[in-house]
Amino acid sequence: MRGDGESASVGAMREKAILVTGANGEIGHGLIRRLATAGREKIVALDLAALDPHLSELCDDVVQGSILDRALLDRLVSRYDFATIFHLAAMLSTRAEFTPVAAHEVNVQGTLNLLQLAADQTELAGRRAKFLFPSSIAVYGLPPGEKAGSGRIHEKSWNLPTTMYGCNKAYCEHLGRYYAEHYKQLGAGRDLSGVDFRALRFPGLISAQTIPSGGTSDFLPEMVHTVARGRSFECFVREDTRIPFMAMPDAIQALLLLEQVDERELSWRVYNVTSFNPSAGEFGELVRGRWPGSEIRFVPDEKRQAIVDRWPADVNDDAARADWSWRPEYDLVGALDEYLVPGIDPARSPMPEQGR
Ligand code: NAD
Ligand code: SER
User: Taking 80 as the threshold, does the pLDDT of residue 168 lie above it?
Assistant: First the structure.
């Protein structure tokens, strides 16, 4: 498509911008602030929910609507030239288990719609649109009894998800690879088609600014936010439960680092990233040390526990470290003392109901 007169004129009429879907979510909050501070292209925010007014003022266009609304997506393509798309919108793992078909619609059909939007952008602009996709440790599924001795799980091992959300993420990783490497493989002139797809398998994320809901890794962020509000906390997993986590600023940094790296440096398209992996009990002890007198009890929900028991205790992020110099800024103690304790403002955000 490069050099095509009609494409060039369409591109010229459209405004250059970055698209962020799921903009009102936890990652969206951190990402939009970072993009706005960096003073990059215009930011177009899309979310089903109304955008937090603090974020709206940082965006150039705020669109309230669904990633399942193709007419809405077509209107965005006709107006904007998106060189980068951060596709964050999703239904998270606990909520997805209650409504698996709806989760599939949002997580798979919604992602397909955005990948097609990105492929259309590539065709119109004459350069491959970048597509950043947050995948998850939920793509892993360790057999019962295997978790304790399994070490740091490599990207290519145990890709056997046991949740609808994990299946959705795993399939979308494949869809992304297809759009990047095999899109319309039987068509003519494939040299500049498809999408520059890049994905991160995030661990559980902990933000000081927002509180999660609907995820299965929510037990640590819920713990710290509940205790910081002076309330007692019932943890829905056992004390010895261990999965990887990361502070939100590191998650944003990982997304931006992966976005910036030259495509030729990527040895594959889907990377583990991680930072620390305390057990729920160990994290509880550290939290009690920061908020003395806080009450934390462990009352496992056997069904949610079973989901977490299939997720790895740790993941191997050597490839991200080697290919694009990934390093987390916050270790466990740093995340608490330098980020969460000073950053949590109980007056700012209300706690959602525990356990959903
Ligand atoms: P979140 O639940 O806080 O935000 C998701 C956002 O998507 C919400 O604002 C929601 O309104 C929006 N959304 C849902 N359905 C939509 C639709 N049909 N159309 C438009 N918007 C829709 O989630 P988050 O923590 O910000 O996660 C963002 C992404 O990162 C998701 O893809 C999630 O799977 C992934 N991820 C998150 C974590 C984590 O611990 N937070 C870990 C791994 C991966
Ligand atoms: N934090 C997410 C969830 O629990 C994992 O991707 O759903």
Answer: yes
